[in-house]
Amino acid sequence: MPVLSIITVNYNDLPGLKKTFASVWAQAFTDFEFVVIDGGSTDGSKEFIEANAGRIHYWVSEKDKGIYDAMNKGIAVANGEYINFLNSGDCYTSPETLQRCRLPERAEDILYGDFNAVYKDKVTLRKYDFEINFFIMSGGTFCHNATFIRKKLFSSLGDYDLRYPIVSDWHFFMKAIFRYQCSLFYLNECIVDYDMYGFSSIKTEQLAAERQEVLRSEYAHELVMLEKYRLLESRYKRILARFPMKQLSWIKIKMSKFFR
């Protein structure tokens, strides 16, 4: 059994696919299998995959019901202890990235790291070196390309829910962390260069709506507490704004226990 299954999902993105393949094949760490799920591309992606089939452990090119359906297909055939999704257009930050993660030494359910957010005119490092709690996760998520998830979690918790075509990975993380108390480990490594013009990055309104639907239907009690927290936080900030800067440190020390 390999330590890692790298799953790449692609649909009509041949230039991105070539970048991703090159990044995977350049890795110094080699205890992985490479799984490619193509959605029936017509831009030459299928032919490129076929030409490189000898370096791929499993591939298929067929129509699917969306990105998470394709990811579920990859999960179904994966054999690694951990799964990493490196979708078309995304790349590891260096040939030593996987080696630095020291995956064979890890035992946690979900490993997560930092990522470079790649825009057309800039690259921004996004770090996750802070406490992961419900308040943080309710409005954001890990970069799933920068996470390594134990395969057995999908067997016990289920695959990605196709009811949420934009936030199904976030839904899975919320369930794993706050319903099943799965263990986490912060890798303190920048894992991927992530294309911010990807699928979920450009559908911000639908993303927010899907998150609210999940919170209302599955985390009603936590949502009430979250709204109270946000109200208190807003009042806290307004109070601080009324005081001179020299008094703020003392006030923050006195009030910080309410916002941990």
Account of the protein in words:
The chain has helices at residues 14-25, 45-51, 67-77, 97-101, 134-138, 151-157, 168-179, 204-218, 220-241, 245-255; strands at 4-10, 32-38, 58-61, 82-85, 91-92, 110-118, 123-126, 147-150, 184-195. By secondary structure, the chain is α/β, with parallel strands linked by helices. It has 2 domains: 4-218, Spore Coat Polysaccharide Biosynthesis Protein SpsA, Chain A, CATH 3.90.550.10; 222-259. Strands 1, 2, 3, 4, 5, 6, 7, 8 and 9 form a 9-stranded mixed sheet that branches. The radius of gyration is 20 Å and the shape is globular. The termini are far apart. Mean pLDDT is 89; it is low at 250-260.
Instruction: Give the helix tally.
Output: 10
Architecture of the largest domain, CATH level 2?
A: Alpha-Beta Complex
* CATH topology heading of the largest domain: Spore Coat Polysaccharide Biosynthesis Protein SpsA, Chain A
CATH class of the largest domain reads Alpha Beta
Radius of gyration: 20 Å
Which bin fits the share of residues in helices?
Answer: 40-55%
Q: Quick one: how many beta strands?
A: 9
Model regions low in confidence, pLDDT < 50 over at least 5 residues: 250-260
What's the overall average pLDDT, rounded? 89
Structural class: alpha/beta
Distance between the termini: 42 Å
- The percent range for strand residues is 15-25%
Oligomer: single chain
Dominant shape? globular
CATH-defined superfamily of the largest domain: Spore Coat Polysaccharide Biosynthesis Protein SpsA, Chain A
- N-to-C SSE string, H for helix and E for strand: EHEHEHEEHEEHEHHEHHH
Q: Mind summarizing the main beta sheet?
A: 9 strands, mixed
Domains counted in the coordinates: how many?
A: 2
